[in-house]
Specification:
alpha+beta; three-stranded antiparallel sheet; 18 helices; six-stranded antiparallel sheet; Beta-lactamase; 16% strand; Serine Threonine Protein Phosphatase 5, Tetratricopeptide repeat
């Protein structure tokens, strides 16, 4: 049975094709009308009804907030709802503040972007650190290892680490390449930048952040998310189990994240941050080119709606245990969209998609008068849940009903069927896994999984 592809896949393909051929037709000027605001309301209501977004969102155009809303729970056990001033972990979006502090110190003459790592952190081995510059750290070209290559990462990140202990840990890793040779996304590199900031300024990262950024801008809800600290209105993070629903996210001691991912913030604080980036209160205009072009909110093209159109934007996003953050900025039209959520899937995007493609793309389509469709739910997961709750016959009936009658509300994605079939197999539910495979797409991955099930159950 032929199935339609997911919106996500379609957008990815057309965006890739458009990037390859450079076919970026000019978008119309942005205009704000009551009808567009109502369309945004309808769009977001569909995401909420579909249970595809929990958290806070803010949309602003030309300095005016068009839409802001909180949904879901900051603490599910205590039934404490998310509010617009709930503080979320912003994960790697912390890095934008780290490189702003670095550039401010550079502007003040206290730090050299071409300065060697060992000049600022002499404890770092000279045989490795003499070739690494601040610029290399900022651009992820230091050669310092990225976290995915650390075999015991999940155990390490649960422990408290003092700055000295983290520095010792990082120095024990071999470089994965010669400094400057290639890109290797490294949170460890950004951790070292935080240590450099503290050494050069003589102040803690948190104190300097408050002094140089938060206090001048009135960002009263942005601060380090120290583990164990009593912080009011802080959201708990949740991971989705496809079997049990939302569960507490795995523990992560925030000492491990520090300047690469330890900040908490709110959508309104991030809006103040965005507005400040248009002026010179934080950084003079000549250095802002470094901030946007080299180190910070790098320019990239993002999809607008479902017709293959894209727009040049600044985008920064983050993901950490139980949390995702997503900030999109289009300076030419002064558009700012920020989304903070405390519910995420572990390395998957079936129940809730990534913010740029699934949510921001549709919002931009409304603002730029481009075609888009309302979000649909995962047919693969609906059938998966039906199989678990009501058995094989009902699951087969559900599949037929969704495919024949409800493709306006559900999407069919082959990869999602494969992922969920594997989830059943890994859980030891071989009978259900086999039944689910018979409904899934007939491809090599599913056939291989069926063979594995047959071998196990002989």
């Amino acid at each position: 049975m032929r199935k339609c592809k997911s919106i996500l896949s379609q957008l990815s393909i057309v965006t890739f094709l458009c990037l390859g051929c450079g076919c970026h037709a000019p978008l119309p000027d942005v205009t704000i009308t009551e009808e567009k605001v109502a369309a945004i309301e309808e769009l977001m209501n569909r995401f909420y009804e579909n249970e595809q977004y929990y958290g806070t969102i803010l949309i602003a155009v030309q300095g005016e907030i068009l839409y802001q809303r909180a949904s879901g729970y900051a603490d599910r056990d205590s039934l404490i709802p998310n509010t617009l001033d709930t503080k979320f972990r912003i994960a790697s979006a912390t890095k934008q503040f780290t490189f702003m502090l670095v550039l401010q110190l550079y502007e003040a003459g206290k730090l050299d972007l071409e300065g060697k790592l060992t000049e600022y952190l002499p404890e770092y081995p000279k045989d490795k650190g003499d070739g690494i510059t601040v610029h290399h750290l900022l651009t992820h070209r230091s050669g310092i290892v990225g976290e995915p290559k650390v075999s015991n990462l999940e155990q390490i990140e649960k422990l408290y680490h003092s700055p000295a202990q983290m520095l010792d840990l990082i120095t024990r890793f071999d470089l994965v390449s010669k400094p400057g040779a290639r890109y290797e996304y490294s949170n460890f590199g950004y951790y070292l930048l935080g240590l450099i900031i503290e050494r050069v300024s003589g102040k803690s990262y948190g104190d300097l952040l408050q002094e140089k950024i938060c206090a001048p801008l009135g960002m009263t809800n942005t601060l380090p998310g120290v583990t164990g600290a009593k912080i009011t209105k802080r959201a708990k993070g949740y991971h989705y189990s496809y079997f049990a629903g939302p569960e507490d996210a795995p523990f992560l001691d925030m000492s491990f994240a520090f300047s690469c991912g330890h900040l908490l913030s709110t959508v309104n604080d991030l809006y103040l941050w965005d507005r400040a980036l248009y002026g010179e209160e934080l950084l003079r205009n000549e250095l802002k080119e470094l901030f946007f072009d080299d180190y910070g909110w790098k320019y990239q093209r993002v999809p607008v709606g479902n017709d293959g159109q894209t727009v040049r934007a600044n985008l920064i996003a983050g993901s950490i245990n139980g949390f995702k953050s997503n900030m999109l900025r289009i300076a030419d039209d002064e558009i700012f969209i920020t989304q903070l959520t405390n519910h995420k899937e572990h390395n998957r995007h079936i129940l809730q998609g990534w913010g740029t493609v699934d949510i921001a793309s549709r919002i931009l389509a409304i603002l730029y008068d481009q075609p888009y469709d309302l979000p649909r739910k995962s047919a693969a997961y609906e059938v998966f849940r039906t199989l678990l709750d009501s058995g094989e016959v009902t699951a087969a009936e559900k599949y037929s009903d969704l495919y024949e009658n409800q493709q306006d509300k559900f999407w069919f994605n082959d990869e999602e069927f494969e992922i969920l079939a594997r989830e059943l197999y890994d859980a030891g539910m071989f009978g259900k896994a086999l039944a689910y495979c018979e409904l899934a797409p007939n491809n090599s991955e599913i056939r291989e999984l069926i063979r594995s099930i047959q071998e196990v159950t002989r």
